[in-house]
Amino acid sequence: MEVDLSPKLCKKVYGGDGGSYYAWSPAELAMLKEGNIGAAKLALEKNGFALPRYSDSAKVAYVLQGNGVAGIVLPEKEERVVALKKGDAIALPFGVVSWWYNKEDTELVVLFLGDTSKAHKTGEFTDFFLTGSNGIFTGFSSEFVSRAWGVDDKAVKTLVGNQTAKGIVKLDGSFKMPEPKKESREGFVYNCEEAPLDVDIKDGGKVVLLNTKNLPLVAEVGLGADLVRLDGKAMCSPGFSCDSALQVTYIVSGSGRVQVVGVDGRRVLETTVKAGHLFIVPRFFVVSKICDPDGMSWFSIITTPNPIFTHLAGRTSVWKALSPQVLEASLKVSPDVEQLFRSMRMNEEIFFPPPK
Fold this sequence. Notes:
This protein is 13% helix and 42% strand. It is mostly beta strands.
């Protein structure tokens, strides 16, 4: 059965004055279920507080907008309070408890992409809240809460009765949350907008890779990632993941055109994408993008910590590794055409500037 690869926007799941939580549904984006991938987005207004929770899925979080604070607790470790800013990537392995807070006027928006192969529902994240109207205190009986935490019945009623909000609350502006420490970011956060560029092509584009070298925790998450910024009218070389990895792409800004070619050389997707769209490229399928005049940027996860890609055009093209005779025979062309084909884009990398 063919799977619809069309890009989709997320939909609101819950929220209120403090902010909202959005998710992509596998019912609308079937590749989420097929690829065991979850995708969601948290948007916090000023003084918005996303209550402590843990998830059934390992994730990579990416700050799309704003500044804020996050609390991260690894199993049997102390809480780390980290400052967040646009471009930050955070690896969240299994068992991590996290909370998120925004004290600024600008909305804090965080993207979550992760592996749902061990989740309760394939293609969806399920969060388990420590507090709130759907937190653990509301599920246990008064006796269990009293005995487990050593409090009397009055305190139990207060603990349970005061928790009326679900997932996100708005704090009073005078409430003082924990202050982040600079050293807490080390090993936990990697800013993709300030990091050294792994690829930088004039008038073409730029790439920053997120892998086990610059953020070791991604090994526990099992995912790699990259931030790609394509210059106006530039093209990304056709390529595919050669280690059976799946690529999940969120368009951060701008717009452009995407084509994906699959089994039997069929074009399985041809569409225009814009900021907010999410789409998934199946394993071994070939994808290429051409952006509009204003450029385009995207954040992708790849379902392996250290992905390997094969490109079909440019200096590192697989075509250039093949002998001339093989190309002549397989393309059924003369030596002159084969030489022309091989020589084009000889010195260019994975991004091609617009035609002059």
